[in-house]
Amino acid sequence: MIKKRMMIAAVAAAAAAAANIAGADDGKTARMDRSKLLIGAYCLQANARSDGHVKAIRDCGVDFIVGVDANDRATLDLFARHGVGAIVNGVVPGWWGGDGKRAGKMREINPPEKYAAGAASFKDHPAIWAVDIGDEPSALDFPYYGEVVRQLRKALPEMPLYLNLYPNYASVSQNTGSQMVSQLGTKTYAEHVDVYCREVPLDYISYDFYPYTTPETMDGFISRMYDNFIVVADACRRTKRSFWYIPQVNSRAGIPPTSVNQLRFQANAALSFGAEAVTWACWCKGWWENNVLDADGKPTEQYGKLKLVNAELREVGPHYMRFRNVATRLVGFAAGSPQRPSLPFADTPRYAGYVRASNGAPLIVGEMAARDPANGEKAFYVTAADDPGDAHNASFDVVFSPKGKRVEAFNGSGRVPAKRLADGSCAVPISSCGGVLLVIGPAAQ
Fold first, then answer.
1. Are residues 111 and 44 in the same domain?
2. H or E, element range at 438
3. Looking at the domain assignment, is residue 59 inside a domain?
4. Which run of H or E residues covers position 81?
5. Kindly report the CA angle at 383 between 395 and 267, in degrees rounded to 5?
6. Is 120 inside any structural domain?
């Protein structure tokens, strides 16, 4: 009972500490319970808005949908009935960075009076969790985005705001600052994220990254995926922002549908880097093929896959959200591996001896501190990174040294047995692309 009360207190503390998505500092989370690991998805087409369709969203373990028309009150009513949140468009002017040709022109195209008019005509609804204010803007527009956020906070003080960034494979400048046509608007991706953190007063960073573009380039894209995680996770820790991640459930034309293990790998890797929301692309057709629903609004094979992986995330989520990420280490990645990140990452030679795979497989190890420091716990979220392409699934153990302290382990199936070894270390089973949360308590069992 004492332990249960401690867990409830920790969750309550996390909720109180989390500002709303607009970055306000009053701790209110009325629309979106950010003490929970949140699961979302992109795009809702007109033929997928019946009561049965909305119930299917909830049944799939999806908490919210990005891209719902704020004026579609019938759909919002269904969302409220089934407990699904909506991040809505149609309130303020839309903006997408596109190929970069409009970079720096957002104020000219969408002046402040357009945002004032949208805010003045806005009608709230219980299902609305946030207002979408744009997607993948150039850093040249970040200062204006800062003004827009502050303007909308005054006009709609209780309304959270949602903005998503480019991944690191967006183009960078090849010319001078005055000549460039660049999606990022900066010379490097790290600079792009730094400018966002300096100019835009939102308390999270959201971006999308789709690693399964073509089989021929997968290794390189996995390496860049890690690079992207490193830049954004470091920025989130440095600026005390939450980390939101958008992986792919769909695939390009001619590419096989994304597998269950590929879904698992993306989500678990994100958790190892501290993600607090996972927003899948796409529920309905938005881009590419093999979305969760087909063009007729009927479930594809991706529905069952996503439902399974989301159920695993919901199982481990309450335990995971008792902690916050403080560092991420990549253990067992061979030098010269095509999937090894090119950026520096937190690692020490001794760490591989503290948390390792029994078969030497590479691991992504997220080091986590308790949100309630009074409970004396720490944790690791470990992802098996041996087979991100789902070509040769394997089962093995994560071996770690708890130094005589109490150990609990959780994965998508629930509590996992931790076997004590003769040398005092522990072994916990894991499979390729899987994740496991290792909780180390203050006292021995």
1. yes
2. strand 435-440
3. yes
4. helix 73-82
5. 115
6. yes
112 and 220 fall within a common domain:
yes
- Looking at per-residue confidence, does 5 or 119 come out higher? 119
Digit-coded pLDDT (tens) for 229-242: 999 999 999 999 99
- Cα distances (angstroms) measured from residue 276 to each of 176, 205, 250, 320, 322: 37, 10, 21, 9, 11
Q: What is the pTM of this model?
A: 0.92
DSSP H or E stretch at residue 128: strand 128-135
Q: Is residue 364 part of a domain?
A: yes
Looking at the fold, whether 117 and 29 belong to one and the same domain comes out as: yes
- Asked if residue 205 lies in contact with residue 167, where contact means CB atoms within 8 angstroms, the answer is no
> What's the domain count of the chain?
2
Whole-angstrom distance, CA of residue 255 vs CA of residue 217: 12
In the β-sheet with 128-135, what is the strand arrangement from edge to edge? 161-164, 128-135, 85-89, 64-69, 38-42, 277-280, 242-246, 204-208
State the residue range of the domain holding 15.
Answer: 2-322
Return d(Cα 443, Cα 406) in angstroms, integer. 5
Residues 282 and 396 in one domain: no
Of 16-20, 100-104, 345-349, the poorest mean pLDDT is in 16-20
